[in-house]
Fold each of these.
Amino acid sequence: RRITREFLHFASTLLEETRTGEPGAEKMPDVTRVELVKQRIEFGMENLEIYLEFAESHLQKEQERQENELKNLDQALIDTFGDSLETDADVEILQQRWGCDDPDAPNTPYSPLNSVFPRCLRYSFVAFVGLLFESELRIFCNSVAIERSLQSSTTKGKESALEQAKEFLIKQADVKTVSDNLWRELHDMVKIRNCIVHFGGRIDASKHKNRLEHLSKTKNGLWIDSLERPGDRLLIVERAYCESIVKTVRTFFDSVFAAV
């Protein structure tokens, strides 16, 4: 909130000066273009964390509500039909309330709140973080290029936005504070995002299948599910991984801002 207030105060003062041609009532803050981008990114990171916490807590509450409702329904069926007899009425009531078996996974009870919803929620979050990261990275590199009179290359060529930014920061801006391990973490995030966006999480369709398999075994919050969709291996993303990529992006921007 403090960052937002400072940013909005600066922006309103600047707009007033632009509109009237006269300085604002108060002295203009001595803020560079890069500093403005820094405040913008910090604000975005804070809101990503708030969004994830809200979405995950709401999902958890709905899962608990559904679980309690199912327990109550089971108890009502036991009270009515006994605990050792599965009747046609038992099956019919459960199917009416919870739906039939998942057509993608025969003989598996379909519970969206425990399968599809969490997977899609976290898929969308990874895609969201990847999009926001690349967008802010371009803005940051362009701001550095303008302030230092450099030629930014983050919008040209066939290389990924991350590769273009890495080349610009190291070779032109002389920013060498980002460790090889951190660059690797960012590249892995992009690989996972691309698998989600382009292939719906099916790792066998990705050209980075081997790397994704390795990450599913070594990275907290990632694993492979072969049961939800027989014939497809889905990369499953847990909350822990979503939290980790926000931390990774924060660490990256802290590192490059310290160097400029």
Note: The chain has a mean pLDDT of 81.
Amino acid sequence: ENPYYTVHSVNAEVSVEDFDGDSQVWTEKFKDRFDSSRVNVEVSVTNSSGETINYTQPTQGSWTTDGTTHKLNIGKFTSNGNYAIKATYQDEAGNKVELGKYYFTVDNTAPTGTIKVKQGDKEKDYYQAVEDIEKQSGLKKFVFNLFHLNDLHFVLNASDDISGVKSIEYTVVDAPSDASQTFSASTDFSKMNWSPVTEDVVISADRNAVIYQKITDKAGNITYISSNGGFIVDKANPNEPIVTVKQEQKEVYNSDIDANV
């Protein structure tokens, strides 16, 4: 089980409790020997791939004592990363005791992703970011720029360098039935039905639409991506033209004729 829990910042603290057992062995005199310099705090920070990354060292507080409890505020960690904090205490005899290990993730960065179109054995970028996500509740303009006579395959990918990707979802929004080359599609994402991405998204039926991608990381940050235009899948053959001639039907004419298509 992953020991990390994800937040936007952490105010960390180390607490040391004096032994309060047999008073004949552990007297008040010995309790007074707590030495904060014998407490060692180790902090390591990694990305989602387990690689060590740099972080901003927070301002550390001072030790405080309340009875037999000694506490140190390590500081507020705000840099993005997966944190592992280990604290140990070494007594006067050289004995080490582990005070505990603590794991948490700080992630304030939105995930990233792409939408690509499969063309044979190649994939072509076909996406753009949807800006001002918090304010999106209206329409976004698109231009039809992708026309396909067969099944259309979209490949949706996502990544997140800190907490990792929790989910990738998509939805397809149809263009208005009377849409011309330029049209508007809804960006009211909260009212859309999203489906999980498990493989290529395939458009097999005739359709005029746009595709949106929703990426959520494990910290709850969300990124929306759209196709960079509208697509048209049209497998139907055009109707054969019908030619009519206004004059009397015959094989050979010796004058101009009027024809309608």
Note: Residues 21-30 have pLDDT under 50 and may be disordered.
Amino acid sequence: PICRLFRFEGFLIQRALSRSTDRIAASLITLAVVFAAVVGLKHMTMSLKVQSQEWVEEALTDRIFVGSRLLTPEEYGAFGTVNGVREVVPMSHNTSIPFLIRGIPADALRYGPLSGSPELMRKFRRPRTLMMSSQLSFTLGLASGDSVSLPSAQGNQNYEIMMVTDDYGYFLDDRSYAVMSLENMMTFARIDTSSARQFTLVLDPGSNQARIKNDLYATAGQYGLYITTGDEKSRFTLRGIDQDFVIFELILAITALLAG
């Protein structure tokens, strides 16, 4: 009926529709692809959040991370006098060959999986034994029970991976590392153990981290402390995932609008 009233306009509309079949089909295909991408992105976001929450539970829960000037054991022992601090773990005794390896005194690991197992503690103290973080394990394609070759003054030596865990060895930024007892590291690399400037404080379960942070500044603020609580790092980590994926979602939304 419209074509009868507006013959010229109707003719133009019919011709435009007949010539735009391919464009409409392409738009529909693009919309379908965008929809599939959105579904896939949502699934990937949820999966990454679950993995991050599991990592947060192991590496950040009931932890406070302290940076300072170089401190002797007598000086950083003051951190342990603050109510709620369970263990003071120095994190400065490292080597980066062939990847980041932290040497930690076995006596400082009286928490996590080793705390209730004398057998695991003996294994950790045993020569040529180490633990790996989940990220380093994934990167190298290695698992608990495998061996990794490390260079030393005596040539390459195989070290057994006794456990893959994020309970030990994390300090703020680097999530890809290995951990061995400080005693074993001293036979593997030349390091100065007379002082340290990075520390992980393990807290009593459920401790008020903001209160402990303030108490640390009051007790040892003269050492030039820089303190990050596990709660602060957890919020930053999980919020960062949401912010990263918002950008991808905006790109997909713009693509969908253009296709439509």
Note: Strands lie at 63-71, 85-90, 94-95, 101-104, 129-132, 147-150, 157-164, 178-181, 196-203, 226-229.
Amino acid sequence: IVLADESFVLNGDRLPAQLDRFLRRMEAVFGWPKGSTKGKAFIDLNEAMGYVRTRKPAFVVLPPKQFMQAHKAAGLDPLGTAILLDLYDTKEVHYYGVARSSSTINEHVHMTPGLRLAVPGYDDLQWVNVLFDGTLPATTHFKYVPATDDAGAIAEVEAGRADFAMIGERAFRKIKPRVAEGGDLKVVFGTPPIPPSVFAATKWSKPADRKKVAEKITDLCDGEGGNMCSQMGILYIMEPLKDGYTNWAWKYDRYVLR
């Protein structure tokens, strides 16, 4: 299994031991032989995606963007929805466009060609296309400003090198006080709800293993597993929000990139 999320950075040097306990819990819940389950946890999402492509794991826990990017090639079948500890109060996430309050930019960014957009992973323009629901020619509508992460995208706006930044739920919560009335930032765009991280089987998983996981997935972080999961950074795992995953994956596959 591959688990990937930027929030795992909070685990520090405890991450390997916490991952090991998570794997042993999987074995206990799913009835697999002790010590038979291998896993790797990633903070760097690009590194995680490369590992999935080359090492072909049976199961993955991925954020929504990486799910969309990998679901077709890896044959991802959502078996559960993972609610991470720092996003404990939501079963959906959003992406937000944020600009300086002093700017003249408004919520019509999709109708204003030529704006400078700072967005992490801007090299995947199909992702930008999907966030704007296919309503604009993503290849030419914006002038893209490179950013390594959400914080970097906001910094580009603060420095005046970008007109607005596209950031995720976690980053938005950190700067939320700044978009309140009188703050130095404002929201100029928001996506519809997107389901959070997915626990999915890949096309390389065995049918029998997939069946066991699907039957017992909600038990993983229940009872004595609760403390172990929370130490890993996962609050609980619920039944998959399949319609949501299917809808966003369909958009990623079918929207024509213009």
Note: The two ends are 35 Å apart (CA to CA).
